C-alpha cells in the first residue's frame, strides 16, 4: 500500500497551515485538543494529497471548517471529489461553516459529542 498519510512533499504546507490557522479553526481546536472530546485529534493532517483541518485516526473522522469560498460551484465540486476520496478510505467527514464555529460553538460541540457518543456505542 502506498504511503497515504502526511506525505513528505506536503510537510511545509501542513506546517504553514498549522502556523496560520483561521480564527474558526483556532476556536474549534480549543475544544478538540488534548483529548477533551475523549479521542485524539490531529490538526492539518495529510491524507493523500489533501490536508484535513482535523483528523481523528481512531475513528477515521475528518472535521472540516468551511469558509465562504466553499460556496462556489467549483469549490463544491472539489469538496465532492475530496469527500468521495475520504469515503473510499473509510473516512467520515463532518463539515461546519465558519459561522457555525464562531457564533454557535455550543451547537457544534453538541453535534460532535452526539456523533462521538454514537461511535462509542456502535
List the main descriptive attributes of the protein structure presented here.
alpha+beta; Endonuclease, Chain A; 4-stranded mixed sheet
Draw up the topology in text.
Elements: H1 11-19, H2 23-32, E1 42-47, E2 50-56, E3 61-66, H3 73-88, E4 92-97, H4 98-103, H5 105-121
Account of the 3D structure:
It is a single chain. The chain has 122 residues and is α+β, with helices and mostly antiparallel strands. The chain has one domain (8-121): 3-Layer(aba) Sandwich (Endonuclease, Chain A), CATH 3.40.960.10. It has helices at residues 11-19, 23-32, 73-88, 98-103, 105-121, and strands spanning 42-47, 50-56, 61-66, 92-97.
Short description:
The chain is α+β, with helices and mostly antiparallel strands and 122 residues long. It has helices spanning 11-19, 23-32, 73-88, 98-103, 105-121, and strands at residues 42-47, 50-56, 61-66, 92-97.
Counted up, domains total 1
Overall CATH class: Alpha Beta
* Average pLDDT metric: 93
Tally of contiguous helical segments: 5
What characterizes the major β-sheet? 4 strands, mixed
Amino acid at each position: 500500500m502506498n504511503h497515504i498519510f502526511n506525505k513528505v512533499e506536503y510537510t511545509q504546507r501542513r506546517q504553514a497551515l498549522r502556523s496560520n490557522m483561521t480564527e474558526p479553526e483556532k476556536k474549534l481546536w480549543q475544544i478538540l485538543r488534548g483529548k477533551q472530546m475523549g479521542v485524539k485529534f490531529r490538526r492539518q493532517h495529510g491524507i493523500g494529497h489533501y490536508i484535513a483541518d482535523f483528523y481523528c485516526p481512531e475513528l477515521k473522522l475528518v472535521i472540516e471548517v468551511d469558509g465562504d469560498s466553499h460556496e462556489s460551484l467549483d469549490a463544491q465540486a472539489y469538496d465532492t471529489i475530496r469527500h468521495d476520496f475520504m469515503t473510499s478510505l473509510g473516512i467520515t467527514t463532518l463539515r461546519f461553516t465558519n459561522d457555525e464555529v464562531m457564533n454557535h460553538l455550543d451547537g457544534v460541540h453538541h453535534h460532535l459529542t452526539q456523533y462521538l457518543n454514537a461511535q462509542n456505542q456502535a
